[in-house]
TrEMBL record:
Belongs to the SIMIBI class G3E GTPase family. HypB/HupM subfamily. InterPro entries: CobW/HypB/UreG_nucleotide-bd, Hyd_mat_HypB, P-loop_NTPase. Residues 233-255 are annotated as: Disordered. Residues 37-197 form the CobW/HypB/UreG nucleotide-binding domain. It comes from the Bacteria. Keywords: GTP-binding, Hydrolase, Metal-binding, Nickel, Nucleotide-binding, Zinc. It comes from Kitasatospora paracochleata. The keyword Cell cycle does not apply. Residues 238-247 have a biased composition (Basic residues). This is Hydrogenase nickel incorporation protein HypB.
Amino acid sequence: MPMCRTVDLRQAVLARNDDSARELRAALAARGTVAVNLLSSPGSGKTALLEAELGLARERGVPVAALTADLATENDALRLARSGAPVKQVLTDGLCHLEAVMLAKHLDGWLPEDTRLLFVENVGNLVCPASYDLGESLRVVLASVTEGEDKPLKYPTAFGLANLVVVTKADLAAAAEFDEAAFLAAVARVNPGVEVVFTSARTGQGAGLLLDRALAVLDGARPHRPVMAAAAPDHGHGHGHGGHHHGPVAVEDLA
């Protein structure tokens, strides 16, 4: 019985979060803003990549902002602010993920009215954040070449719900003996058809690809709809990424 109550409580929390996410998505759509949710493990290099993409957005004249979440310190916000874009740091006080109501609260009164792209750098974690819709229109999961080719199989919910997969630190692929074919095969097993792009903040490889994909969604393109999310109802507007699956994928489902 305690296990049943725990599961019921978790489902109730996720259901409330989904309601908040729908409200936030609608509010952002009404003002012409697309939110991009960035998920990865700690140390993936997503802050370095995001800093570069924010700089490119500013160069192109795209009104862009970023909100970054961490358990402690404002280090990432200070790095991202070097791009010249409006940046806000959120400290989660030990919580391992952002939730839609938290995001809405932090955006209220801060997000510049003309913002067209909002990048949300989630807490470095591929477990908890995977289950929480933030009202984003594009969910991006990042993995560095140093993390191993089987990362998508170890974290199938995170990669299985991605609209886009970004590989970072591509300049280290040879040194890390990264098996690109094995990684792509692993991604395809949990999320058939999702686009995978390779980037390096150090060399500039893939510069602007993340920004281009976000701008395409802003212009009305529908992002990739993951098979894992297909069973869930759509969010109801053109930029929705197709809902969330709240349960883990069983190992046998990946065989």
